[in-house]
């Protein structure tokens, strides 16, 4: 059994506060594909776990598994990518509201998707905004930075999609937005956390300066099912 919901955050979210999003086959859960690419397996899956994943995603489809599956994929699967990330605990991060950080709505999604395409902070899809609150900073009416909420294990909320237009980097906008999103999380009586690629040392240093601490490594794997 996990001692913390953060050990298996996608599973804890989809079987808990985000259960209304969950699609299930057998023992595996996932978000709708226009919300998030994440798929979750239980802490101790049985030998049918890859069959359940295939049944859920469909022939020839790919998925992004959060955490270790426990067994490697069958030989007829394609491993598209495997990434080691770090999970960072924001229990010591302060809550700092920001007057310039404005709530983003579904009407802003086209502009948010354009910003994500320019900055590549990680998965952000047409309905990702439904997972939680998103804040943005505009300059001359143009969205130049944003951050928001993604996975929601019990008692915690993940900060995600932290990005700044390259023309506005170096001004501290990402840091301000992370703390502003954290303020909303703390206001609900929850704690913030986030993930970063292990190789993204610049982002990790920034988050450490904001009060986040390294909690654990996390595995992310992109896998494609056989076509039939």
Question: Can you describe what's shown?
Answer:
InterPro entries: Acyl_CoA_acyltransferase (IPR016181), GCN5-like_dom (IPR013653), GNAT_dom (IPR000182), YpeA/RimI_acetyltransf (IPR050680). With 228 residues, the protein is α+β, with helices and mostly antiparallel strands. It has five helices and eleven strands. The chain has an eleven-stranded mixed β-sheet with strand order 1-2-3-4-11-5-10-9-8-7-6, with helices on both faces. β8 (142-149) and β9 (156-164) form a beta hairpin. It is globular and about 50 Å long.
Global morphology: globular
Helix proportion:
10-25%
Beta fraction: 25-35%
Instruction: Give me the number of helical elements.
Output: 5
Largest sheet features: 11 strands, mixed
Q: What's the helix-strand series?
A: HEEEHEEEHEEEHEHE
C-alpha-based Rg, rounded = 17 Å
Q: If you average the pLDDT, what whole number results?
A: 96
State the end-to-end CA separation. Answer: 34 Å
The count of DSSP E runs of length 2 or more, i.e. the number of strands, is: 11
Task: Give the uncertain stretches in residue-range form.
Answer: none
Protein name: GNAT family N-acetyltransferase
Pfam families: FR47
Domain N-acetyltransferase: 99-228
Organism: Amycolatopsis halotolerans
């Amino acid at each position: 059994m996990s001692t913390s919901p953060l050990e298996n955050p996608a599973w804890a979210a989809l079987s808990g506060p985000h259960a209304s999003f969950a699609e299930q086959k057998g023992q595996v859960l996932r978000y709708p594909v226009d919300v998030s690419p994440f798929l979750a397996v239980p802490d101790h899956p049985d030998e049918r776990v890859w069959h359940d994943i295939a049944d859920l995603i469909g022939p020839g489809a790919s998925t992004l598994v959060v955490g270790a599956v426990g067994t490697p994929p069958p030989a007829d699967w394609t491993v598209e990518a495997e990434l080691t990330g770090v999970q960072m605990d924001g229990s010591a991060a302060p809550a700092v509201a920001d007057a310039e950080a404005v709530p983003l709505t579904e009407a802003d999604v086209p502009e948010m998707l354009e910003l994500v395409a320019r900055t590549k902070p990680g998965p952000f899809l047409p309905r990702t905004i439904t997972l939680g609150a998103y804040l943005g900073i505009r300059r001359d009416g143009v969205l130049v930075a944003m951050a928001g909420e993604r996975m929601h294990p019990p008692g915690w909320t993940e900060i995600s999609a932290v990005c700044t237009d390259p023309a506005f980097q170096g001004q501290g906008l990402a840091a301000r937005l992370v703390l502003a999103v954290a303020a909303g999380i703390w206001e609900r009586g929850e704690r913030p956390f986030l993930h970063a690629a292990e190789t993204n040392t610049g982002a990790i240093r920034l988050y450490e300066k904001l009060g986040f601490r390294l909690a654990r490594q996390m595995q992310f794997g992109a896998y494609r099912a056989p076509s039939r």
